[in-house]
Amino acid sequence: MSIQVFGLPVSRGVAIGRAVLVASSRVDVAHYFIDPADVDHEVSRLRDARNEVAAELVTLKSEVPEEAHAELVALLDVHLMLLHDELLADATKQWIAERHYNAEWAMSAQLEVLARQFDEMEDDYLRERKADIEQVVERVLKALSRQATPSEPGAPGAARDFAGEDPLILVANDIAPADMLQFKRSVFTGFVTDVGGRTSHTAIVARSMDIPAVVGAREASRIVRQDDWIVVDGDAGVIIVNPSPIVLEEYRFRQRQIELERAKLNRLRHTPSVTLDGQAVDLLANIELPSDAAAAIDAGAVGVGLFRSEFLFMNREGQLPDENEQFEAYRAVVLALGGLPVTIRTVDIGADKPLERMSNHELRHEHTLNPALGLRAIRWSLAEPEMFGQQLRAILRASAFGKVRVLVPMVAHLTEVHQIRQALDRAKEELRDKGQPYTEVELGAMIEIPAAALMVSSLLRHFDFVSIGTNDLIQYTLAIDRADEAVSHLYDPWHPAVLRLIEQTIATANAMGRGVSVCGEMAGDPSFTELLLAMGLRSFSMHPAQIASIKQRVLRADARALHGQVGAVLSAEAPEEACASLMKARPH
Prior knowledge:
Strand order of the largest sheet: 1-8-7-3-4-5-6-2
Shape: globular
CATH topology of the largest domain: TIM Barrel
CATH class of the largest domain: Alpha Beta
CATH superfamily of the largest domain: Phosphoenolpyruvate-binding domains
Radius of gyration: 26 Å
CATH architecture of the largest domain: Alpha-Beta Barrel
Strand content: 5-15%
Helix content: 40-55%
Number of helices: 26
Largest sheet: 8 strands, mixed
């Protein structure tokens, strides 16, 4: 029977495929596909972990005090029995052999299957045994985490070995940013998560991959089962589980229409981005890894407006990249851009992008009461001067190979500005002492805290340019956790206060003759293109997949005619509705 699940549409389009579930666990585990040749090695890892847990349980049995002997020994015996039960042991091996899941993912996937079976039992005593199986699995997962680092994830094509030609759609309670890095190189054609908002990391990466996604779908990961055929409607925010043949054909027709529209947009890739009244507009790319540079060039970007360097720091078991590793990554992007500008943001760790270990401070995301307001972004960098110095030296060294700009996230205080300048000067001096070449780089600030927007004129006395990070600016202006689906309906980029802060920042930067761009999600949202042009914005940075649709809007816009209507939009009680008048000013 067909079932509909509703969530938030965060990446447009339609995906049809088989569901691949990532089970939630109280233990963070890596999820990736292994190479078929590594199946025996992965099964061996699983066997070693199970043997380690079995030895632990036997040792615990021998240490049980006599006064509590009978009950505790019986419990440990149950855990030993579950550990070797074929429903857990053999089935987990099957996930590895047939699906090519890594051992941790295979164990989590089988826990999800067994947990559902226990939930459906009528007998209260049996139903409560779910906790025992969860404890056993968590012991095995911890044992796996103590092993030597497994081999690198398999090639992107490995996942298709079990699915044949069937497309795959990832379904999870949530997807950690580190896992998204692995999945970004994989074969999924759509994402569905129970939690998250329009600017959660899953949503952002899905848009960067240009694949449909629905987040905040509540019970999706409980309703959808492994291998179910599902439809992800990224326009309406609907997931259809086991659709009827008629519904399936309707969505396949929509897929074909979307592909035709994309083909038309792709013809604009190398068309200069100029408004009808002759104003040039820079359309830049946001990237997360050096390998993304090729997509930026292919999409017609005229540079990289945001290289999120923190993704070099993630999924590394807490071992931070050294200066040389960072330098090689930054240089690769600079060389790939062939003389086009590259803006590298210093590490923006914290909030929705925690590290496994945050260096000397050893802060973890779950130990921070409010990570969005804690030691994150430039605050963390300044608290870790050695790490920050390494990154600045690596960026400066890469500047010898092309045009590089440095962007600092979450600036709010002039004291921070002075510390940043001092750190940059110190990095230059250290490179000079070593005889390592570099060129002068422009230094910019992210405007993502209301305080920074209100004092942008003061900041621009110390910075060469600013870039507006609309995702966090909206979050901090409206006091909304953008990753929390419970309040996601209050996350409103059309809020008058948000629009006024953006307009004020653009106007001030233009008046002072300093560069200004928008690199948040609003830059890649076509519904804001005319308004941002009207505000005077001439530099947009977005995911490569969004460039063509934004360019189409720019080519059809008359920026001078639009400018006169900004005041009416900003003073309106419903700016989104008032913005419709901007469309009337656009010649057709």
